Amino acid sequence: MNKRPVGTLLTTKEAAARMRVSTDWLTTQALRGGIASVKIGSPVGKRGGRRLFPESEIECWLSRNLKEA
Hints:
alpha+beta; three-stranded antiparallel β-sheet; 16% strand; globular
């Protein structure tokens, strides 16, 4: 198994606040594979548990998607 450090993990609420988006939008993006996340506490495909987002992924997503005004 390939183990690599993940770094700081943010809750859905923390990540959404950092991105200034709704938690619903962020969760939808994670489910579609647009933003990396990990789900813990319940089996894949089942409701419940907690979704966590690597802080580095949120920062990368912001730098890729921010456009200058």
